[in-house]
Design brief:
The chain is globular. 26% of the residues lie in helices and 24% in strands. It contains five helices and seven strands. The protein is α+β, with helices and mostly antiparallel strands and 195 residues long. It has a seven-stranded mixed beta sheet, with helices on both faces. β2 (62-68) and β3 form a beta hairpin. It has one domain: Aminopeptidase, CATH 3.40.630.30. The protein starts with a strand and ends in an 8-residue tail after the last strand.
Length: 195
């Protein structure tokens, strides 16, 4: 991860984020990283871009952006469940959930197509955990794929790999799909944290 830095997604960092999204045709078929927010349907490319920008301006869209120098090369989206209510395997997740969901969830990663398999996702994960610590910490949940023994295109690993999360200290909570797991980690609040 040498050479990478991370910044939060804000109004100030929006141009770098938007440039990366535009360079990849909106990512994941024009998602604009809205797929895990409350469902939006019937919006065209420009409307999705505007909707995401409005969420960022309102402080209702969180991500750790990874930079290589001045260029944004990837990110990890995170937020509270109320901000990101949609997850993959939602039905199985709900059927196996006991109690309330934790205060934080990591929903997706995106890495520039020319930077994949170069540690960008791991840097984004660490950046997200650092931001969560500054925001007060707590239990963080994610939904990675177990790719052990499988050859999987990085294009389909929007949730990250189980191995990456285990290396970052997450523990397995339960399985919610054929290769899909719920993992958790408790993040301590950083001293001098933001409210």
């Amino acid at each position: 991860m040498a050479g990478y830095s991370t910044q939060p997604l804000t109004v100030d960092t929006w141009p770098a984020f938007a440039a990366l999204v535009d360079a990849h045709n909106g990512v994941f078929g024009g998602c604009w990283c809205l797929g895990f927010h409350a469902k939006v349907v019937g919006l065209d490319y420009g409307q999705r871009r505007d909707a995401k920008q409005a969420l960022v301006a309102a402080g209702r869209a969180h991500a750790a952006l990874v930079y290589d120098g001045e260029a944004c090369v990837g990110w990890c989206q995170f937020g509270p469940p109320a901000e990101l209510p949609e997850i993959k395997n939602k039905k199985n997740y709900a059927a196996t959930q006991t109690g309330e969901p934790p205060p934080w969830r990591l929903t997706c990663f995106f890495v520039d197509r020319h930077r994949r398999r170069q540690g960008v996702a791991a840097a984004a994960l660490q950046g997200a955990l650092q931001q969560i610590a500054r925001l007060g910490g707590g239990v963080v949940e994610a939904y990675p794929e177990n790719t052990a023994g499988k050859l999987v295109s990085p294009t389909f690993l929007h949730a990250g790999t189980l191995a990456m999360f285990e290396k970052a200290g997450f523990r397995i909570d339960r399985q919610i799909g054929k290769n899909k797991w719920v993992v958790r980690k408790t993040v301590r609040a950083a001293s001098g944290r933001s409210p």
